[in-house]
Design brief:
Blueprint: E1 8-11, H1 18-27, E2 32-35, H2 50-63, E3 66-71, H3 83-102, E4 107-110, H4 120-132, E5 141-145, H5 158-168, E6 174-179, H6 180-186, H7 193-206, E7 212-217, E8 219-220, E9 231-232, H8 241-249, E10 258-260, H9 265-281
Parallel strand pairs: 1-2, 1-10, 2-3, 3-4, 4-5, 5-6, 6-7, 7-10
Antiparallel strand pairs: 8-9
């Protein structure tokens, strides 16, 4: 498989070893991957061994997989008003950052947080405080993921992300991942080229396109503005294929890394990666 500058991949499992995720990604035509660096459903984690690191770096060299992104634990809530949960989340986030630095990953993607009983402004301020407590030592860029706005989650409005970025700008490396399913469910209509133009203008006006670093590419089972996080295969949900064709061709975003998190695993991802690359070359 020849690798090129069209950056498309998927979220690969590390269950058989963190290095195996890269070989599995390469086998389905990916030249970028997203991984978990630990069990995302457990607070108990450990750093990688020297052998883990050696095997991973060797796999990266052999596969030429680049722009490797970690998705942090679903348990972490950097905006919680619950003392124990917040403390545990901050500790787990720092540990996640260390693991990313051990593997020399490009990005650490995270959901901003949930108010869990407080108001959105308090939650956002707590997230800022949590981020400023991190001690980055490598070149990992932290990426805030747009959310669908389910429950009391913040991050479903561009204004939320702009607020966080403004508060930490210049203090830690921070950018944004747009999840197509999430922003659609949050109320941003991206079904057509015209609607994408309007959405990108909003993003640029509120956050700034320079902060957009990556996409999670997912169709949506939920309808526009339904605020439910339900991924669908490309073209099998409420967004439709025209939307994904746009982001593979628009000169402002076509070069950005795009990670599939659609259902049905590697066989489906191989087809979707091929489709996305085909559109990018038209």
């Amino acid at each position: 498989m020849l690798h090129d500058d069209i950056l498309v991949g998927a979220h690969m499992s590390i269950s058989d070893g963190v290095d195996k995720a890269l070989y599995d990604g390469h086998a389905i035509g990916a030249n970028i991957v997203q991984i978990f660096t630990a069990n995302q459903r457990s607070w108990v984690t450990k750093d990688f061994s020297q052998e883990d690191i050696f095997l991973f770096l060797r796999a990266q060299k052999e596969t030429k997989i680049s722009h490797i992104m970690s998705h942090n634990s679903y348990l972490i809530n950097l905006g919680s008003n619950k003392k124990v949960l917040l403390s545990g989340s901050r500790k787990a986030m720092q540990e996640e950052l260390v693991r990313c630095e051990q593997l020399n990953l490009s990005y650490l993607n995270f959901h901003p947080g949930s108010a869990t009983g407080s108001d959105e402004k308090t939650c956002l301020d707590t997230i800022v405080e949590s981020l400023l407590m991190l001690r980055p030592k490598g070149n990992v860029i932290l990426l805030i993921e747009t959310t669908a706005g389910q429950g009391s989650c913040v991050g479903y409005k561009f204004e939320h992300l702009a607020y966080i970025i403004e508060k930490v700008d210049g203090k830690i490396p921070l950018g944004v991942t747009i999840d197509t399913c999430h922003i659609f469910a949050a109320g941003y209509d991206i079904r057509t080229r015209e609607n994408w133009e309007a959405t990108l203008k909003q993003f640029d006006d509120i956050i700034g396109l320079k902060h957009l670093k990556a996409f999670h590419v997912n169709d949506s089972i939920a309808s526009l503005g339904e605020r439910k996080d339900r991924h669908a295969p490309l073209g099998k949900g409420k967004i439709g294929l025209e939307s994904f064709k746009f982001i593979m061709q628009d000169k402002r975003v076509k070069h950005l890394p795009k990670y599939l998190e659609t259902p049905f695993g590697e066989e489906n991802w191989a087809k979707e990666i091929k489709l996305l690359k085909t559109w990018a070359r038209l």
